[in-house]
Amino acid sequence: MVDPAKALPGRDTPMPVPERHEVLGTPLAPPYPEHAQLADFGMGCFWGVERIFWRLGAENGIITTAAGYAGGYTPNPTYEEVCTGRTGHAEVVRVVFDPERISYTDLLKVFWENHDPTQGMRQGNDVGTQYRSIILYHNEEQRAAAEASRDAFQPVLTRMGYGPITTEIVPATPFYFAEPYHQQYLSEAKNPHGYCGVSGTGATCPVGVARTSG
């Protein structure tokens, strides 16, 4: 990881983003509904990760999703800057959800089962600190749930021959939206046949979930 003192300086101007989600049709940026909660996950390439979560659908409590950068030091970075490894950021997806319809624990199950959380600073062929596995929690309830789910999933991975989980579980840092072309990149309207290397381990997280088919 880059030393904070050596991180790129960034800029004060936020990245402009589309007004509406390409698939869900909901606002991409705040303000969100009062009852909404936030979840931030890094699982490798954010194109495929965002698609995993938006496919859960509004009927399952997903209000909107967005690709962005978090966990580092550089304010309002560009994609090119993040790729240098000198911002400290990971590629992350913000999930805005209705907790009355889908719980944070449900989202954690999706998180663990749809990437390999044991690879350190990479995900498959995508190598670099920006592809690390990371959960950025927004309150103590999320922290406790994330740690409990990690501890429950590790024995499953161990039985399947995987190593220790390397996922960072850290307090949420500022979320910086990625460039407009990254938002819903794998949607039908943009790149329905686009490639993204995110894939699961095949392991099933032993955490109860009721509404995450997609």
TrEMBL record:
One MF term in the entry's GO annotations: peptide-methionine (S)-S-oxide reductase activity
GO CC annotations on file: cytoplasm
Keyword Transcription: no
Record's keyword terms, sorted: Oxidoreductase
Residues of the active site: C45
Peptide methionine sulphoxide reductase MsrA domain mapped to chain residues: 40-196
E.C. designation(s): 1.8.4.11
Pfam families assigned: PMSR
Reactions it catalyzes: [thioredoxin]-disulfide + L-methionine + H2O = L-methionine (S)-S-oxide + [thioredoxin]-dithiol; L-methionyl-[protein] + [thioredoxin]-disulfide + H2O = L-methionyl-(S)-S-oxide-[protein] + [thioredoxin]-dithiol
Keyword Oxidoreductase attributed: yes
Superkingdom of the organism of origin: Bacteria
Gene Ontology terms describing biological process: cellular response to oxidative stress
Role this protein plays: Has an important function as a repair enzyme for proteins that have been inactivated by oxidation. Catalyzes the reversible oxidation-reduction of methionine sulfoxide in proteins to methionine.
Xref: NCBIfam families: msrA (TIGR00401)
Alphabetized HAMAP family for the sequence: MsrA
Family named by the database record: Belongs to the MsrA Met sulfoxide reductase family.
Listed name of the protein: Peptide methionine sulfoxide reductase MsrA
Encoding gene per record: msrA
